[in-house]
Amino acid sequence: MLHQPITKNYHDFIIERDPEKCIQCQVCVRQCSYGAHIYNEKDERVTEDEARCVGCHRCEALCPTEALTIRRNPSEFRENALWAPQFIKNIYKQADTGGVLLTGMGNPYPYPVYWDRMVLDASQVTNPSIDPLREPMELRTWLGSKPDAIEVEMKKGKPNLTTQFLPQLQINYPILFSAMSYGSINLNVHVGLARAAEELGILYNTGEGGLHQSLYKYGENTIVQCASGRFGVDSKYLNAGVAIEIKIGQGAKPGIGGHLPGEKIGKEISITRMIPEGSDAISPAPHHDIYSIEDLRQLIYALKEATDYEKPVFVKIAAVHNSAAIASGIARAGADVIAIDGFRGGTGAAPTMIRDNVGIPIELALASVDERLRQEGIRNRVSLLAAGGIRCSADVVKAIALGADAVYIGTAALIAVGCTVCQRCYTGKCPWGIATNDPYLAKRINPDIAHRRLANLVRAWGHEIQEMLGGMGLNAIESLRGNREKLRGVGLNEVELNILGIKHAGA
Amino acid sequence: MKSWQYQKDISGCGLSGIINKNGERITGESIICSIACQHDRGNGLGGGFAAYGIYPDFKDHYALHIMADNLDALHAVEGFLNQTVSVVHQEKIPTRPNKYITDPPILRRYFIEPVKEGDRICRWPGLSDDDYIVRVVMNVNRDIKGAYIFSSGKNMGAFKGVGFPEDIADFYRLDEYSGYIWTAHNRFPTNTPGWWGGAHPFTILDWSIVHNGEISSYGINKRYLEMFGYHCTLLTDTEVVAYLLDLIIRRHGLPVELACKVFAPPFWQEIDRMDKEAKRLFTAIRMVYGSGLLNGPFAILFAYNGGLVGLNDRVKLRPLVAAVKGDTVYMASEESAIRAICPDPEKVWAPKAGEPVIVTMDKGASTTKKQARLSPACAGA
Question: What does the pLDDT look like over B89-107, one tens digit per residue?
Answer without folding.
Answer: 999 999 999 999 988 999 9
